[in-house]
Amino acid sequence: MTLSATPGHFISRLSLPAMAASVATARLHTRGLLERWRLPKLIDDAELVVSELVTNAIKAANNVPPQARYPELYDKLEVVCLSICLSAVELRIEVWDPHVEPPRRCQADMEAEGGRGLLLVEYLCERWGTSRPPFGGKAVWAVITL
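Now predict its structure.
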């Protein structure tokens, strides 16, 4: 984890293995960070947005079986990166993964257990989108207004 501050900004960066257990780690990191930054009213929404974006990044990057053993992880485990930036007016959440395909909103039927993540992000955030960093992959970002 990297934690830095510039005048008017606080930034946290966390690299995570592209595996399901990382979603809980990302949520816990977000909660602790927002508690330290004294933003308790944003915790629930930010945790949900982080959970959805990290889950999507892991799905995009994941080529590891769910119950993988160490030899299977050694050559195949990819990394996703969570960045959270606080300015005077907004909280920006960004998740990078190594694949360039942009996320797609799904039309989930009423019985589906998943497929609503980006709809939730859209509802909770002022705006969201994707970018392609010069070093490759994609970053999906979302902004919550303070």
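Residues 46 and 58 are 18 Å apart (CA to CA).
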